[in-house]
Amino acid sequence: MTAATDAPQIDARRSGRWLYIASVVLLCAWVLVPLYFLFINTLSSPETVNSFPKGFVPEFDFGSLRFFAGFQGMIDALYNSVLVAVLTMIMSILIGAPAGYALSRFDFRGKELFRMLILLTRAFPLPLLALPLAVLFIRVGLDDTVFGLALVHTTLAIPFAVLITFSLFSGIPIELEEAAWTLGCTRLGAFTKVVLPLILPGITASAIFAFVISWNEVFAAAVLTIENRTLPAFLLQSLAESPLHLKFAGGFILVVPALIFIFAVRKYLFAMWGIANR
Amino acid sequence: MNARLLPYVLILPVTVFLCIFFLYPFVLVAQQAFGSDTGWSLDNFRDVVSHWKFSISLWNTLLLAAVVVPVQLALSLLMATMVSKMKRGRDLVLYVWTIPLGISDLAAGIIWLAIFEQSGFLNSMMHGLGFIDAPMNFISYQNMTMVFIAIALAEIWRATAIMLVILVAGIGLIPKEYYEAAEVFGASPWKRFLKITLPLLRPSLQTALVLRVILAFEVFAVVAALGGTLFPVLMGETYSYQFDLSNSGAAAAIALIILAISIASTLVILRALRVPKGATI
Question: Whole-model pTM above 0.95?
Answer without folding.
Answer: no
